Each structure stands twice: as structure tokens, then as C-alpha cells.
Amino acid sequence: MLLNKTRRFLAVVFFLLITLLFLDFTGTLHQWFGWMAKIQFLPAVLALNVVVIITLVIITLIFGRIYCSVICPLGVLQDVIAWVAGKRKKNRYSYSPAVNWLRYLMFGVMIIALIIGVGTIVALLAPYSSFGRIAQNLFQPVWMLGNNVLASIAERMDSYTFYSVDVWIKSIPVFIIAVVTFVLIAVLAWRNGRTYCNTICPVGTLLGFISRFSLLKVYFDREKCKDCSLCSKNCKAACIDYKNHMVDYSRCVACGKCITKCKFGALKYGRPVKVAAPVVAPDTKSGEQVDASKRSFLLGVALVTTAAIAQEKKKVDGGLAAIQDKVAPERQTPITPPGSWSANNMARKCTGCQLCVSECPNQVLRPSTELMSIMQPVMSYERGYCRPECTRCADVCPTGAIKPIEKEEKKSIQIGHAVVISKNCIPLRDGVDCGNCARHCPVQAIEMVPSDPNDETSVLIPSVKEQVCIGCGACENLCPARPFSAIYVEGHEVHKQL
Fold first, then answer.
1. Measuring CA to CA, how many Å separate 65 from each of 155, 195, 273, 465, 477?
2. Hey, how many other C-beta atoms are within 10 angstroms of the C-beta on 483?
3. At residue 497, what are phi and psi to the nearest 5 degrees?
4. Which residues make Cβ contacts (< 8 Å) with residue 101, sequence separation at least 6?
5. Which residues contact 307 (CB under 8 A, 6 or more apart)?
6. Of 73, 166, 212, 255, which alpha carbon lies 20 to 30 A from 333's?
7. Tens digits of per-residue pLDDT, 111-123?
């Protein structure tokens, strides 16, 4: 059937390319396919991308919930797992009423989280972000290990087509969250198809309401139907009630499999002659039928309106200290990337998708482990520093949490300032000259001054000009003191344009 084949082809293309965006550590693919991250529904809402939002709503009003079965990578991942499970057992699904109380509860929680700016809850419920964490934490390390194997082989052949990269877990808590999310989705998809999509996902709930009014739908030709139940047994959304010849359009993702499986041509995709009444959930207490469409409409409007309001270890030079792992300092204020402009903007708009983390070429970004901002990117300089000429994180962010900036502009954005810890400084501690921090500061914010103001011949130690420092972390990263640097960067809650 043309509908099913077309949908599956487009779904595979979108899924592979979006997955590659998270796997590609070179940033090459984003020049061509970065727009795929920016057309995801919730990121588009948070970025106030009106064109994308209106386009997705119009597509849903015409074709139904094809966004969930074609564009959303988490939805396609569920389909892939369900397809593998279907090889083992065919005709394994059955119709079940929508669990509306859970759908609307999750939707309401998302609305409240967006309004009050609780990024952790938004990150946990956002489908694109959930897939991003899975791809970055589970798929990318495997991809990078494969790259390292090819790099090793190429090196033996005197070829540098591939280069080796460090593979490391950037955050244990976020890694655990990614594993738990993947297991949960995999189990639900293996057993019941799109249970997660139709009971937990708030984007699915909103688009499900809109799809009730879509122009094209899957519908029954009652005269041809033989009540064989094959359609219900092959519907991974559990939305086809073959006994009453009804389809719950709020859960149907227009995959077309039911039409393919029907042997009598009783199911069609098009404009129904007579639109079926919406499936309603029984009120177990009163025994009456309750149509939740009005409540869903109010919640749907609330999402769009309120979201607009809320929203290999480095080797050091000089040979002055034994090469050990650096230990991150305890910063009073976390450092957020240039372009985020403030911790508040990051909290309101970031969904913790990890795309910027997976793309950072300097190994500076990693997920926060703080409870209120967990999974959102923060900066730390044990493995590298934020090079003034790099704007990769701002280029790939789909939500506006890190706004696009020019390379020249970045050099004048102060995200923090350096602080000297004299007791760790090698000239004072070991009695030898250093000055590594001053030599490598890209904005000349550090100068070496006598440790004793009254003795110009005393050893020189760094002094920071806070009004010039941009907080890039070059000094902290390249300081040879171990395990704690003698100079580190303290973040600013609100960035400054110098």
C-alpha cells in the first residue's frame, strides 16, 4: 500500500539522519541536516519558531498524526522495536480504550513545568530530548569506538582519513536516566507498540487532539468489513475498535498497516463520508460517557500560549607537574555556554536533548547533575576550554536556549571570570617559574605580578583583570597544577557583553 511504504521510507530517512546528528562529532552533517532538529515540535515551540509550529499543525490537520510516525525520532524508535518484536509474534495487538487520565495528567505536568521553568521535568517528558539522551549516551559511544578502530587500522596504513577520539561518560546520572528511559520505552514498545507515545508523551497528546479534526483519516467501509479483527491485531496504537467500526483518531498515527493487513478492503485512508464520533472514556464512578475533547482543547491551547512566555586526557606543556587527572572545582555558579545569556534563559528553554553536548569539539560541555537543572548543559574545563572561534553549540541548539552568535561577538561575551587559588600555584608551591595561564589567555586578561608587592624580585604569580576576562577556561585547562588548578573560572548567572 502506497501510504504505508511512503511513510516507512520517510520515517527511516528522518530517523537515520536525526540519529546521525547526535553521532557525528565532526559537525559536518549539521551544515546539511541541522534543520531536522529544529522542526521537532517542542523545540520549535520553545524557540518561538512560528513557521514550523504552524506548518506542523497544518500537516496534522490534513494528514493526521504523521509527525509522530515520521518526524519524531522517539516515535520511529518505538516502531522499530515493535517491528522486531512482530517478527517473533504476529497479530499480537488488540483494541484498548485510551487512558485519558494519564495522558492529560502528563500533559498538565508539562504545562506547569513550562510555566514555572522546571527544566528537569520538561527534559524528562520531551520526546525529542529523551531520544537525544539515548543517542548521545548509548549510541554515540559505540559509534566513536567504531571510529577509533578504523583510525587504528588507517594509522597502520599511513592514512589519516580517521582520527581517534576520547570516549567517556560525561555524566553518570544522565547516563543512568538514558538507560532507564531506553529500557522503559523498549519494554513498552516490545509488548504493546505505542503505549509510551499514547499515554505519556505530551506532544502526542496535543497532536492527538488536533488530529481528531484532520481532513484525511483511516475509516471503515462497513459494508465490506467482515469483523475479522486483523486491523485491531495489527494496530500498534491499539486505537481500532473493529466491533464498532471505530478509530480513535487521537491515537492513530496514520501508519497504514491496518489498511495493508485488511483482506477485504474495508479500511481506507481519505476523507470519510461520515466522520466517526470520537472515542470516549467511560466514567467508572457514574457510568456515564465523558467526552474529554473540550478539556483537551484547553490544555492544547495552554501549551502553545504559555510555552511562549515560560520557556584522552590533555597533556600539559612545561613538564612542571606529574600528569594526573584534573579535578573539577566546586563552582558557586555553574557556567552556561556563550549564547545562553543567562541561567534563567537556559532553565526556561533547554530540554536537555544533549545535542550541544554531543557536538562540542572541545569536550567542555556536559550535562548538569544539579537537581533543578539536571541534563541541561554546563561547562567544565578539565578536558579542554571554550575556544573563542567555536560556536558549534549555538549553531545546533534547536530551542533557543543557546542563541546563535557570531564568532566575533563571542569574544566579547563574559560568561564568567577567572579566580586565582594561590596555594595551588606552582611558583609559590614549588618555587619555579610558570606563567602558563598568562601565555595562553586569548584576551590578555591575566598578567604575572610579584607575589610580594613590596619585593619586585619575588616569584611571579597570575593576576586576573576581571573586566577583561570572558571565562573561556583556557587558563584553568592549561594550568599544570594537579589535581586542582591554581586558577579556575566562576560562572555568571547573567552574561555580559564587554
1. 48, 15, 20, 56, 48
2. 13
3. -95, 110
4. 281
5. 42, 45, 46, 114
6. 166
7. 999 988 888 899 9
Residues 399/354, Cβ–Cβ less than 8 Å: no
Residue with cell 520505552: 185
- Dihedral in degrees, nearest 10, Cα atoms 104, 253, 118, 390: -170
Q: Is the Cβ–Cβ distance between 492 and 485 less than 8 Å?
A: no
Cis amide prior to 483 (ω within 30 degrees): yes
How far is residue 181's CA from residue 183's CA, in Å, rounded to a whole number?
A: 6
**Neighbour count for residue 492 (Cβ, 10 Å):** 18
d(CA 216, CA 268) in angstroms, rounded, equals: 10
Give the per-residue SS3 of the chain: CHHHHHHHHHHHHHHHHHHHHHHCCCCCCHHHHCHHHHCCHHHHHHCCCHHHHHHHHHHHHHHCCHHHHHHCHHHHHHHHHHHHHHHHCCCCCCCCCCCHHHHHHHHHHHHHHHHHCCHHHHHHHCHHHHHHHHHHHHHHHHHHHHHHHHHHHHHHCCCCCCCCCCCCCCCHHHHHHHHHHHHHHHHHHHHHCCHHHHHCCHHHHHHHHHHCCCCCEEEECCCCCCCCCHHHHCCCCCCEECCCCEECCCCCCCCCHHHHHCCCCCEEEECCCCCCCCCCEECCCCCCEECCHHHHHHHHHHHHHHHHHCCCCCCCCCCCCCCCCCCCCCCCCCCCCCCCCEHHHHHHHCCCCCHHHHHCCCCCEEECCCHHHCCCEEECCCCCCCCCCCCHHHHHCCCCCCCCCCHHHHCCEEEEEEEECHHHCHHHHHCCCCCHHHHHCCCCCEEEEEEECCEEEEEEEEEECCCCCCCCCHHHHHCCCCCCCCEEEEEEEEEEEC
Q: Which of 464, 424, 459, 428 is nearest to 446 (CA)?
A: 464
pLDDT of residue 327: 86
Higher pLDDT among residues 89 and 318, named by residue: 89
Maximum CA extent, the chain: 101
> How confident is the prediction for the chain on average, in pLDDT?
88
Which residues, listed in sequence order, are joined to residue 418 by a DSSP beta bridge?
489
Q: For cell 612545561, what's the residue?
A: 318
* Residue the block writes with cell 583583570: 465
| Whole-prediction pTM | 0.84
Grid cell, residue 45, equals 515551540
**Do residues 432 and 320 touch, judged by C-beta distance below 8 A?**
yes
Q: Alpha-carbon torsion 264, 270, 276, 281, what sign?
A: positive
Q: What is the sign, positive or negative, of the torsion defined by CA atoms of 108, 172, 326, 388?
A: negative
| Residues 473-489: tens digit of each pLDDT | 999 999 999 889 999 99
